[in-house]
Amino acid sequence: MPEHRAYEPVLSSKAAAFLIGLSKARQRKLIGLLYQLADSPSQIGDYSEPDDTGRDVQFILVRDLLIAFWADHAVRELRIVDIEEV
Fold first, then answer.
1. Residue 64, Cα to own-chain centre: how many angstroms?
2. What's the whole-model pTM score?
3. Hey, which of 8, 9, 26, 27 would disulfide with 34, CB 3.0 to 4.6 Å?
4. What are the sequence ranges of the domains in the chain?
5. What CA–CA distances, in Å, run from 17 to 3, 20, 79?
6. φ, ψ dihedrals at 26, nearest 5°
7. pLDDT at site 76
8. Cα distances (Å, whole numbers) of residue 18 to 13, 15, 23, 42, 53
9. Which residues, listed in sequence order, are joined to residue 50 by a DSSP beta bridge?
């Protein structure tokens, strides 16, 4: 039986395009990292910036990746807005 998670990571098309451009090994590591982030949806990133709607988007640097996300508490999803290599 699959493990129940409180929040589910959901990727934007931009974040998904980044993910599929990685090797299979890096994809697996990144997916694991995204699930770890979703396990703590209210965490504060290294910094935040408002998006076009005024919502605070959190940015967190993990190794060589900058991940932008926000928690959609109404549907229990962690919205992954962007992922970039830095």
1. 14
2. 0.89
3. 9
4. 8-85
5. 26, 5, 15
6. -70, -35
7. 96
8. 9, 5, 11, 24, 24
9. 56
4 has a pLDDT exceeding 90: no
CATH of domain 8-85: 3.30.2310.20
* Segment 34-75, tens digit of pLDDT: 999 999 999 999 999 999 999 999 999 999 999 999 999 999
6-9 long-range Cβ contacts below 8 angstroms, 24+ apart = 6/38, 6/39, 6/41, 6/76, 7/38, 7/39, 7/41, 7/71, 7/76, 7/77, 7/78, 8/38, 8/76, 8/77, 8/78, 9/34, 9/35, 9/37, 9/38, 9/77, 9/78, 9/80
